[in-house]
Automatic annotation (TrEMBL):
Keyword Secreted among UniProt keywords: no
Family note: Belongs to the sulfur carrier protein TusA family.
Keywords tagged on the record: Plasmid
CDD domains recorded: SirA_YedF_YeeD
Phylogenetic lineage: Bacteria, Bacillati, Bacillota, Bacilli, Bacillales
PANTHER family: SULFUR CARRIER PROTEIN YEDF-RELATED
Domain of life of the source: Bacteria
Pfam families the UniProt entry points to: TusA
PROSITE patterns membership: UPF0033
InterPro entries on file: TusA-like, TusA-like_sf
Protein name: Uncharacterized protein
Keyword Transmembrane helix set for record: no
Amino acid sequence: MKSDKVLDAKGLACPMPIVRTKKAMNEIESGQVLEVHATDKGAKNDLAAWSKSGGHELIEQAEEGDVLKFWIKKG
């Protein structure tokens, strides 16, 4: 999956992955894709809910070892 920006939120506990994701989203254009790497298991539900409420689209998510990866398209 191609992304326009990668955010490393590994090792951060809730709510920091969301806070950093929101900040990173402000730095990209509408239609671009942000790739988020997190280790907080709560990020699965948090990022899905945050994306939906913010008008963004969670395109894909994957798990590689203990790293959760998310691809969010800016709305």
